[in-house]
Amino acid sequence: MKLALVGATGLVGHEMIQVLEERNIKVQEFIPVASERSIGKVIRLFGKDYKVVSMDEAVRRAPDYALFSAGGSTSLEHAPRFAGVGTVVIDNSSAWRMDPDKKLIVPEVNISALTPADKIIANPNCSTIQLVVALNPLHQKYGIKRLVISTYQSYTGTGAKAVAQYDAESKGAAEGEYDMAYHYPIYENCIPHCDIFLDNEYTKEEMKLVHETRKIMSAPDMAITATAVRVPVHGGHSEAVNIEFDQPFELAEAKELLAQQPGLILQDDIKNNVYPMPLQAKKKDEVFVGRVRRDESIENGLNLWVVADNLRKGAATNAVQILQALESQEQRSAMAS
Question: Among 4, 137, 219, 256, who pairs with 63 as Cys (CB 3.0-4.6 Å)?
Fold first, then answer.
């Protein structure tokens, strides 16, 4: 495999390298790409050093696959260039997610939607990924009528600037002594403002949950509302999810469906205070679900608490899983021929 990684020096880029190594992805030629100021820096993969190259150089080398984690504008400009030389792009930005001609993929949910014609594949938003992994088996069985989602999202999801802000504030730095990623301090604070506000007074992050969930689950009419909150947690997004089903359900059966879902770990033993927390999900690739209980205020209602590491399953791991699935398909096709 000839693999490019665009955004190799960023938070998610570093995480992708770790996931590639942990999953022992066989990479014969690695092409790290970053901004012009990073060209020549050294990136290590499987104990071997590789120098960061320019975008033009990476396109010229026509990799088999390119993992993108460098922002929407970069993806819009350069992903088609890679696709034009035959590269399959797996993009972690929001650039292509709602493009009707591009697939939005979570392997545990809809990997079967991919075809050899798909050259630019979108990786969903971090909070959407963990949500749909948990929802998928329940929706398949009972049909979801309505979702109410409240997120508690790590500041690491905003990027390096937010991490630097939190670190400065935790050490007692005064405002004005550091660059702020947010309008307010994040240390010992919760900010109900993820991404920009839109005309409907929801944030862009909240509407990503609405639109992306509908697209991934092929449910364009699913009623969804969301509130997204940034919290002072280093790694890991949590979600309180309220579900109204079309069909009646048995609580024990719903828990069993969750327990059997690939990529999900059910942690639901309240007698022993067992439930998911971001502290325990850190550096894990799975989605964790607990506090599974009926919503007694409505018919066919269920509550879930969903947790995952936003830099892993919420970004790097999901992208690498897509890569693995594509490579497996390629190998099966080669064997069949």
Answer: 4
Q: What is the DSSP string of 196-238?
A: -B-TTSSBHHHHHHHHHHHHHTT-TT-EEEEEEEEES-SS-EE
pTM of the model: 0.95
pLDDT at 336 over 70: no
Q: Is 211 a known active-site residue?
A: no
- What are the helix and strand counts (H, E) for the chain? 10, 14
Q: Is the pLDDT of residue 215 over 70?
A: yes
Q: Work out the average pLDDT over 20-47.
A: 96
Check residues 330 and 244 and name the one with the higher pLDDT: 244
| All structural domains of the chain | 2-123+315-336 (3.40.50.720), 127-310 (3.30.360.10)
Q: How far apart are CA 164 and CA 148, in angstroms?
A: 32
Which residues fall within 8 angstroms of residue 205, CB to CB, at 6 or more apart?
125, 127, 151, 153, 194, 195, 228
pLDDT in tens, 175-197: 899 999 999 999 999 999 999 99
237 given a catalytic annotation: yes
Catalytic option among 78, 126, 139, 194: 126
CA distance 188 to 169: 9
Q: Which of 289, 200, 201 is nearest to 192 (CA)?
A: 201
pLDDT number for residue 151: 98
- Radius of gyration (C-alpha) of the chain in whole angstroms: 20
| Dist. CA 97–CA 78, nearest whole Å | 16
Cα 175 from Cα 169, distance rounded (Å): 8
Instruction: Tell me which DSSP letter residue 104 carries.
Output: E
201 and 125 in contact (C-beta within 8 Å)? no
Residue 138 Cα distances to 27, 96, 238, angstroms: 37, 27, 19
- Please choose, from the candidates 196, 144, 175, 163, the residue with its C-alpha nearest in 3D space to the C-alpha of residue 302: 144
